[in-house]
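Section 5.1 Outputs to date
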Amino acid sequence: MMGPALCWMFNKATIAKGAPRHLSSDHNPLFRYLQWRANLRIREI
């Protein structure tokens, strides 16, 4: 499943630099994954 991998990669890539202010998802269905959306909400993105 790609959703957990997406969350892990995003967190790993942004942990040292801080969360970005904006993201572009290009309307990919992967970005509708509930864990991904919760991750963004928790990190206030």
